[in-house]
TrEMBL record, chain A:
It comes from the Bacteria. The modification Phosphohistidine is found at residue 59. Residues 16-119 form the HPt domain. InterPro entries: Sig_transdc_His_kin_Hpt_dom. It comes from Zhongshania antarctica. Keywords: Phosphoprotein. One of its GO terms (biological process) is phosphorelay signal transduction system. This is HPt domain-containing protein.
Automatic annotation (TrEMBL), chain B:
It comes from Zhongshania antarctica. The modification 4-aspartylphosphate is found at residue 59. Keywords: Phosphoprotein. This is CheY-like chemotaxis protein. It holds the Pfam family Response_reg. One of its GO terms (biological process) is phosphorelay signal transduction system. Residues 9-126 form the Response regulatory domain.
């Protein structure tokens, strides 16, 4: 990136704010495939490999949400990750835990679909 | 190795496009570093000889080659055998930091990183590599 390009760019605050807005606007499209993968996992009779795929996708959403300060999604996706880890480490399938994960995934989808997400400005000068 | 040399070139490998953009803002626009970001280990390794980064930042969990696997590849390349590598990962635990350091990482930065201080954090790791 050249200095002239740098000078023409909006402020750092404005760029980060725009990234945050765009991320929230596209969140539903990012979450939907995770729900689809989760359904594949259930249909597969609990394939650990598919569950690891769900985990990786939630991990990506959690990481991006945390950096872009999209706190409700950050919090819910971390909760899902912890529960998925419990499932992966358990010897047997815990139906209650599976139901909890499904519930949180649906909550994430609902929040993403609503677009009504409280996201404070990214931690500038925090 | 590093203290007398100013850190200028940083390679950051991260599969998430939004995080790459934030990192570019943080490291280049805020921190003044010359940064190349890549979406995969394969892409990073394909251009590393042209860019010759002085320090490499790796996301830990990525599809395909993950951060630790990329580090192993780097350590097999004579030019990058000693290049400081920093892992970046979410909600890192103390024992995980030690585990990553045992693998050969110079340090670990946890997500979420602060875009306003990321470059300073990276420079501090660069300076510590020479101590």
């Amino acid at each position: 990136m050249s200095d002239s390009e740098l000078n023409e760019k909006p402020s750092v605050d404005a760029q980060l704010a725009a990234l945050q807005t765009e991320y929230i606007a596209n969140l539903y499209d990012r979450v939907l495939p995770v729900l689809s993968l989760w359904q594949d996992y259930i249909a597969s009779n609990y394939s650990p490999e598919l569950l690891r795929d769900v985990y990786r996708k939630m991990h990506a959403i959690a990481g991006t949400s945390s950096i872009l300060n999209v706190k409700p999604i950050d919090s819910l996706s971390n909760e899902v990750q912890i529960k998925i880890q419990s499932v992966l480490q358990a010897a047997d399938i815990d139906a209650a835990l599976i139901a909890e994960i499904a519930m949180i995934l649906n909550e994430i989808l609902d929040v993403a679909k609503s677009g009504d997400i409280s996201a404070p400005p990214i931690n500038l000068n925090a | 190795m590093t203290a007398s040399v100013k850190l200028e070139r940083v390679l950051y490998i991260e599969d998430e496009p939004d995080i790459r953009l934030v990192a570019e803002i943080a490291l280049h626009q805020v921190g003044g570093l010359n940064v190349i970001t890549c979406s995969s280990g394969e892409e990073g390794l394909s251009l590393i000889n042209d860019f010759m980064p002085q320090l490499i930042i790796l996301d830990v969990m990525m599809p395909g080659m993950d951060g630790p696997q990329i580090l192993c590849k780097l350590r097999d390349m004579p030019e990058f055998k000693a290049t400081p590598v920093v892992f970046i990962t979410a909600k890192v635990q103390a024992d995980e930091v030690e585990q990553f350091k045992r693998l050969g990482a110079a340090d670990v930065i946890s997500k979420p990183f602060n875009p306003m201080t990321l470059a300073d954090d990276v420079r501090a790791i660069w300076a510590a590599c020479d101590e």
